[in-house]
Amino acid sequence: MSPHATRGFTLIEVLVALVIVAIALGAGIKAAGALTHNAERLAEVSAAQWCAENLLTELRLTHQFPDIGESPFSCEQLGRSYDGKLKVSPTPNPNFRRVDAAVANDQGQPVLSLSTIMGKL
């Protein structure tokens, strides 16, 4: 072994290793952020779906044939407020009506739309 040979890593090797670690950490942070966003979106869509389903179930339980037209509604689920529009449309068969419940978040952005068919009793 020559007197000038030393053991250890060169500066370039250390810098390359740091770049690799930084890229891996950046990718991990981006993936964690995407998972957090997806979890928040799932909670929002689930709560909006509960609002729409509750409204449509309430209509069924009243045993009344809904009138054609639009009407606003609002509800609160999981501490969030949701506004929506209930739209009742005619169908080719006069004994049935199409009912659409469109739900938006508190910023007015559409979150979910559910549709069903209701018949005369």
From TrEMBL:
Name of one Pfam family that matches: T2SSI
GO biological process, one term: protein secretion by the type II secretion system
Processing and modification events after translation: Cleaved by prepilin peptidase.
Membrane-spanning residues: 12-32
Domain of life: Bacteria
Localization per Swiss-Prot or TrEMBL: Cell inner membrane
Domain Type II secretion system protein GspI C-terminal residue range list: 42-118
The protein's name: Type II secretion system protein I
